[in-house]
Every structure is written in C-alpha cells, then in structure tokens.
Amino acid sequence: MGYATNELLGYVIKIPPVTMFKFVGLSPYTSLGYFDNNITSDIVLLLPGWYHYDYWNVSGGYYIDFGVWSNSSVTLYVLTRQQFNNYSSTGKFLSGYLYSVSGSNITGYYYVNEAGTYYVVILNNGGSTALVYYIIMVTKSQSNQWANPMGISDYGIMKMGNEYLAYSYKTDEFVGEATIYNALTQEPNSCLTGFVEPGNDWFSVQLNTILIVNATNGNTQYYWLQDILHFNSQGNQFQILDNIWNHTSGVSILNSALINGNGAVSTTKTVVGSEQYYGDLGIEQPESATLPFTIYLVIKTGLSSNGYPWAAFGYSLNGQTTTWYDNVTIKIRAMSAYMEVAPTDDGRGLPIDAELVIAGPWNSECTVANSLNASLGLYFAWPYPYNYYLSPVPSMWSFGSDTAEMIYNAHVVPINYGYVNIVNGPENLAFLTTYFIPLTITNPINESTITNVYTVNSTVMLSEPNIVLLTPGESRYVFTDYVINSSYVVTTNPLNLVLQGPTNVYINYTLQYMLTINDLSGLLNDKSGWYNYDSVVALNEPAIYYLGNETRLVFNSYYIYLTGTNFYHVVTVNVTNLLIDNPYTVIVNWTKQYQVNVNSPVPVIISLSGLQNISGYSIVTWANESSVLIILVPKYYVLSNGTRLVYLGSNETIIADSPLNITLSDFKHQYLVVVHSEYPVSINGTYTTNTTEWLYSGEVLMIRPGTVFSDGVFLSEPGLVITVNRPVSITVVWHVNYAPTVIMYAVMIAVIYALTMLIIRRRHGKH
Fold this sequence. Notes:
Mean pLDDT: 88
Helix content: under 10%
Number of strands: 62
Structural class: mainly beta
Number of domains: 6
Number of helices: 2
Shape: rod-shaped
Largest sheet: 15 strands, mixed
Radius of gyration: 62 Å
Strand content: over 45%
C-alpha cells in the first residue's frame, strides 16, 4: 500500500533527514488565504485569547454564510461596526453582538435585514493555540453545507501536541500518485462555493504546486502549476492536462509572448473575475481506464542555461517511466526557479503549498461523491546533495485551499506518511499526520527542556557528559541513565536513539558530594570520595586503635566541617551515620598514646597529666603524646628487720614522645644501727650514749675506746670497728679499769698520807 516497494519512477522512496527542511517561527499573525468582495477563504493561527476578523458592506436581504473548522473550539461573532469598535478597544462586548456560535466545526449563516457594514470575529477563547480554516461568503441564499477540495495538502505547518510548528523546503519535482478503486460522482444543481454543470459525472485529481521565480531584476514571481487528471466516473475514461496561473498578484495575468510550451494562454471566469491561464492537453481524447486505475502525475521545474525558468508536466501509468507531455518556458531572466512549501503566502495571498486533491472537474465547479474509494500519495524529490530520492511530504492536511474546484461528501483517512484513502462521507477538514518527530530533552542540571524536530527513523546520538562539576572537589553531577518516554531506562552513554515517534528523554543525573576524611589511623581514609546525595556513610572508628610498637590511638571525636567553611559540629561517639547532604570534611580527632613501663624495687607513683596517679612496683600504663609524666620515688623504703632502700636519684619528669621502658635501679641498702651505752662514747666522732642510725651497706661503724670514772672507779670499753652489712644492735659494755683505779687510789692514799703528815708536822712545830 502506498510506497511499499520503496521505489517509484526510478527513485528510491526514503524519509529525508531533518536537515532537508528549514524550520521557521510560526507567527501568531499567520494568515494564508484570498479575499474578494463576496468571499474570503483563510487559514489563521490564533493564540489563546486572540481573534481574527473580516468585514463586508452587505445589503439587506443577503446572507453571511460561514464555514469554520478548527483543531479546538472557537467562537464566531457577527457584529455591527459600533459593536466591533467597542470590542476591539475594550476586549468586551459592551454593546452586545448580533449573533454567536461556538464549536470546532461550524457551518451556518446570518440573515441581514438592514444594509450596513458587518464584522465577523473568530475568537480563540480556549487554552491552546488554534489553527482555523474558514470560508465566509455574502450570498443571496443560505447554506449549511460546504464543499472543499479533499486529499493531501502540505502547508508547511504541522501540529505537535497542542502546538504548531512551521517549516519550509524547496524541490524541483513533485509526484502525485492516485489510485481509483471506485468512483461515482455527479455535479449538483447548485453549489454555494462554486459553479455547477448539473449532472456532469467527471471529477478531477489535481497535483497543484507553487513555482517561485526570483527574477534578475529583484522581483519575485509566483506561478500556480497544475498537473490534472480528468476522470469520467460513469464511463471510466480519463484525460491529462496542465494549467499555469500567475499568482504574483490578485488576478492571474499572462503574456503569451513570454510563455513557450505545447499549450496556449486562455481567459476564463473565476470567483475573482476574468483571469488568464496557460493550458495544454496531454491526453486530448478521453482514454479508457480499467479499475483499479493508477496514475502518477509529475511536475518538474528548473532554470535553463539561458536563465529562463521552466516547468515540465508528465504522467506515468506504470510507475516506472514518465511521459513528459509539456515543457513550458517562462521567458523572464531569473536567478533561480524552484517549487517550495512554506507557511507564507504568494502574491495572491494563497498559501505556498503543495496539493494532491480530488475535486470537481474544471472551472471552479463542485461535484458530489455518491460513491468513492481512492488513494492518494504525494511525494517530492530531494535535490543535490541527496542523490535524488523521493520522499512523502512531511505533513498532511485533508483539504486544499489553492484549488478552485471542490467536492462534497469526501472523507480523508490517513494511511501512511504522505498517503491517504478517500471514501465517501462527511468532509473532515483537519490535520492528519506528520513524520516530523519532536525530541524533547529535559536536563535537570540546568533545568532546561529543549525540543528539537527530527524525521521518523532518524538516529540521534545522545552524548551527555558523564560528570558535570559544580564546585571542583566538592560537588558534581554524575550521569545515571536516560529515561525515554517516562518508562524505558537506558544506561548506555553515548546512546544512538532511533526515533519512531514523539520522544521525551529525561536525563537522570545523580548529585554527589565529596566526603574528605583526614584520619591519622588510616582506617577511614578509604571512605573518602564521592557519595550520592542523601546517602549515609557510617563513621565507625574503634575506641582504641593499636598501631604497634607500644603505640596506640584513642578516639576522641569527629570534627565534621562543611567543606570550604569554618562551620563544623563535633560528634564524640565513635559510630555515627553521616547524611551526605553537603560536601563534608571529617577530621578524626585521635589522642596518640605511648605505652609506659616502669619497674622499681620499691612502690612508686606515676603522675600523668590528665590521668589519675598510679602506684606500684611494676606499672604498665599509657601516656598521651607530649604529656608530662612524673615518677614519684620515695627517698627511703623500709624493707624489714632494720633494712631499707635509699633512692639516690630524684623524682623524674619525662615528656612522653615515644614508648617508655623505665627501670629504677639507683637504690642502696641501709641498715639500722642501734648503739646503747650507759656512758657516752664516740660513735663515728659523735659522743652519745644512745644512737639509732641508718647506715649504708659497707659503711664503717667506729666506736672509739673510752674510759669514764663512775662510782669511784674507772670504767673502760674497748671500742669497736665494724663494716655494716646488716642491721646492727650494739650495747657498749663497760668494765672497771683497775690499773688507773689502783693508781688513783694509791695516789690518793699517798696524798692523804702526805697531807696528814704535813698537818702533824705543823701542829708539832707550833708547840
């Protein structure tokens, strides 16, 4: 069906890359149509709250007939001049209106009783942009039925969601494919929008395009090119012909001297008056057709070597070879000549579009599809550098607006890109489909949503940076995945994404913060790194960590800084769950301690700064680095049985900057020496009767010999010299020294005797 073979007239049928097209902003003022005293046909774009208007001077007894089709509901108003002036200046219907009707498919009329100027306002009172196509006529009769050319039209306007986008492209060739499976048409007795030949059973399939000529004098000229199939629905006969109309201005005027082809310039009557056109019959006498009947209509344009634009018209009955029946040269020097589709209008105000439609046969006539089953396909050629492929037109609307002929009761059904079926049924003036695909990429990092347009089956490489730094060394985003159309998750990056339909891509990034840990122990240093926002990191230092070599660390607290600031808080427990919601620097506060081993033969006291005093003979403890350690050693320590140790050193003050192994050995034994004497004796030079003294081991105890006189006798002791090596208790024993005692007494007796004799002598001498 359609281009299933992917080849036509020697061309490969292929969807073009999006670079084939130029995308343009669609102006809110877009208006494509033609205007006359009695008829207006227009395509307008209305933003929410916007309105479009036309006005006519209407005589009493006439009707204002209207047909309005829109993608969303609009409201049509009929107003007098005063009512319109009030509305346009205030935005409110202060003095009311004559008539109103709302909807997306409106047909009707307003009867004019009194002659005057009447305004028709179409208001978009909805919430989204509306593309409105309307026809308004001033007639002597009313109508609720409107005919239009039906099939495929490309206006350079496409609908995506609730929005409209505009594009343009140039080509040198259009191909229209038509297959008639069944057709029975007949012109009615009357037609509001066109002329009639009642009972005529011919209809037409028309390929209509716009040739744009950029003349060397700087002017731009527009020509409406028609490659037409006439088909007799009763006799299954057909003819082929072409027409060229000058659309540079409101009325077609052609100079026959400047047109060179197989045909001729003629004059005809149209809805805008008498006009000139060029025409040629490619198949002059009707030929028989067998249903289903397929034909390909071809229009090709270019610029000759002498700078004249030309248009060639052809047809094919087999889809392989083309019969070129007319080649028309327009003798105007030009810089370029091409066909174009663009959301703008030609010199006549009509859209610059391409149409392949079924309509009445000729002369702006109407026909009615009593029975119809046909298919249409509209293609354009890609010029250099694309090696001349054919592509279906990118977007389709179901109705034509440039074509003057029309048809009732024809309903368009989209089948494929650029391809439709037409059957009998109510006209559906609407946007059908497009192979343009919006790719919307949402990036949460910069909170941007960007929509670009591609063609179906395009491959787009998504290549997001894997890492986006916010603050170096502190915070970053890390690519996680692409979420496609809210459901399909892809972690591959870069990703070649093949577009099959409207696609939304959400780029998932994970916010990460840097956690920096300064840990003397090294236990937590491997936890330094990047962490996802809202993740939790366990800080679980042990209370004590042994480094070896009699050195250890004692946990104090965590200082948790907000990186790059002086703001911090202290956590004093050694297990904490840190919520990563900012970049943090964690300093683990340890106290380094060294083992202190003190051995002493006597109990000592160790005083440590910040610790309680410890006493004992053999002490093992830990001292904080750089702390002051004082060893308090007793000067004397009594052992037992009159023995003691004397510490020859002094109390030690040590700075703990390494492990300490201290053995106190500077001790000497002293023994208790007790000497008792009844009489004073010389003990090591000191006279005393009793002494108790501690003497060092090896010290000499000397009691000098002494003599005392007591109780009339001399007492003596022999003296003593000993080396002290144990406790000593000495009692000095005194003995009577007879020699001095006898001598003393002998002397005393002698003295007494002498004294006695002296006294006796003296007494004897006196007498």
